[in-house]
Amino acid sequence: MKISIISTSHQKESQSKRISLILKNFFKETNSKVKCFNIDVFDLNVPLWTSEKKNNLKFWNEDFKKISSNLSSSDGFVFVVPEYGGMATPNAKNFFLVFNNGELFHKPGLIVSISSGNGGAYPISELRSSSYKNSHILWIPENIIIRNVKQFFPGKHGELIPDWLDDRIKYSCNVLIKYAEYLKPIQRIINRKDFGNGM
Ligand SMILES: Cc1cc2nc3c(=O)[nH]c(=O)nc-3n(C[C@H](O)[C@H](O)[C@H](O)COP(=O)(O)O)c2cc1C
Q: Does the Cβ of 119 fall within 6 Å of ligand 1?
């Protein structure tokens, strides 16, 4: 079982990246058989999708293929998405345009939204209402919002982090793993080529 954890911040050493690494540990604690693959779109310099691929051959000919192959061999995904201007980040939305070759096709996804304050709801509603049409990702009916993210340190949380949050995250990780297990046959049954793009 392989889960890719995708950090979609636009900042170096972001909170999203820090949370992604913590989530990796949560998965390990939940199920020792799960292997996590962490992707930080800022560190990897994933460019905005463009038809002018010749302007960045290093990415489109090399990096893209490696990331795409890692995503294709993943059974489920976690998207760590900070709220910027009451929206999902451009990097989160762009990911669905760049990796649009069936990598996410009928595989489950968990949205983990983060905010340094009391926000975090908008990226969830935005990704749930778009993003799935051509990628065919299946957002599971759980999501996580980590508010006051700078106080989130499992084992020594700041006072604004509720006691129940760690258990809720572990529960959601476990739900994602179960969906990933049980959706595997679906990916074999459905022919992606029939209707590659949603209506
Ligand atoms: C451009 C920008 C816009 C932001 N807009 C919001 C917002 O609308 N709501 C919110 O709760 N936090 C907002 N924040 C604060 C972020 O929640 C906080 O900086 C968080 O750490 C960003 O995650 P990152 O470190 O992974 O980039 C914004 C931050 C940036 C840089």
A: yes
The closest-lying atom of ligand 1 relative to the alpha carbon of residue 116 is 17
**CA atoms within 13 A of residue 3's CA, in its CB half-sphere:** 33
Separation of CA 141 and ligand 1 centre (Å): 24
What average pLDDT score do residues 17-39 get?
A: 96
CATH (one of 3.40.50.360, 3.30.429.10, 1.20.5.110, 1.10.10.60) for 2-189: 3.40.50.360
Query: What is the value of pTM for the model shown?
Result: 0.97
Q: Is the predicted pLDDT of residue 191 greater than 90, yes or no?
A: no
Ligand 1 nearest atom to the CA of residue 11, by list position: 27
Question: What's the order of all strands across the beta sheet hosting 2-7?
Answer: 35-40, 2-7, 76-82, 108-114, 138-146
Tell me the C-alpha distance between 195 and 65, whole Å.
23
Residue 146: beta bridge partners? 114
Distance of alpha carbon 89 from alpha carbon 120, whole angstroms:
11
